[in-house]
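Input (structure):
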């Protein structure tokens, strides 16, 4: 069993709020430079750029998982992470169909760009991705878990778009794999909202800029970089926080 340094919350140029430097190629190179072993590309409500990062990762020795930062009907942000691109794209198709047909305003929100391994622009996504998909948190979690993915509520100590800011509590019984926090010192303030839930805490960068990649990371002991192995490793650190990089 080996230790893996993981940053499973990174936005690419497909997220309108991310820097235009956040191409798949640049992300993987930066991840390599800062000593990460596993990353996930988690754009808002889409996963399309993750396949290009995956292809580059194979060449550079970085494991890349196929992720998305979903915004549910309740306006809760949650990481959905998969081993297989076809399953991630099936989820993207499902979520995209449930997004409101609002056109992106590039000047206000920023561009939403699909970029390949060579930094070539393939297309601009025209539908605004910074919206809630009409899928409930519960529906999303069970879809993700039934398809072998990881379900991790994002930045639960944030003032907006977190499970606590939107619901006021962490629902007991939903099969989350972990809870992502921005700051370790906020854990005592989170515990009263957990209603008896026993879940591990993790911390990732939520990077929108290259220099943020790997600044927060979680170290996991496992045999190989797969969702199943991550799920098992997370159970071993239940109640503990991932170390800050």
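Output (sequence):
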């Amino acid at each position: 069993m080996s230790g893996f340094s993981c940053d499973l919350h990174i936005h690419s140029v497909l997220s309108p709020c991310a820097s235009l430097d956040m191409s798949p190629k640049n992300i993987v190179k930066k991840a390599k430079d800062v000593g990460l072993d596993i990353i996930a590309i988690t754009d808002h409500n889409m996963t399309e750029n993750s396949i290009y990062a995956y292809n580059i990762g194979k060449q550079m020795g970085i494991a890349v998982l196929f992720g998305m930062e979903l915004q549910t009907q309740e306006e809760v942000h949650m990481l959905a992470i998969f081993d297989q691109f076809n399953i991630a794209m099936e989820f993207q198709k499902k979520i995209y169909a449930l997004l409101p047909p609002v056109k992106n305003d590039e000047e206000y929100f920023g561009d939403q760009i699909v970029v390949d391994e060579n930094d070539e622009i393939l297309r601009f996504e025209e539908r605004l991705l910074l919206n809630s998909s009409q899928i409930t948190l519960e529906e999303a979690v069970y879809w993700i878990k039934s398809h072998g993915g990881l379900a991790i509520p994002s930045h639960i100590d944030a003032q907006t778009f977190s499970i606590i800011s939107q619901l006021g509590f962490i629902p007991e019984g939903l099969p989350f794999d972990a809870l992502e926090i921005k700051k370790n010192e906020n854990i005592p303030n989170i515990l009263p909202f957990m209603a008896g839930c026993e879940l591990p805490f993790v911390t990732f960068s939520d990077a929108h800029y290259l220099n943020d990649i790997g600044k927060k990371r979680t170290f996991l002991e496992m045999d190989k970089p797969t969702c199943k192995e991550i799920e098992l490793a997370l159970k071993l650190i239940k109640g503990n926080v991932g170390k800050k990089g």
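Notes: The mean pLDDT is 94. Helices lie at 24-33, 50-60, 85-97, 106-109, 137-146, 163-167, 187-190, 227-236.
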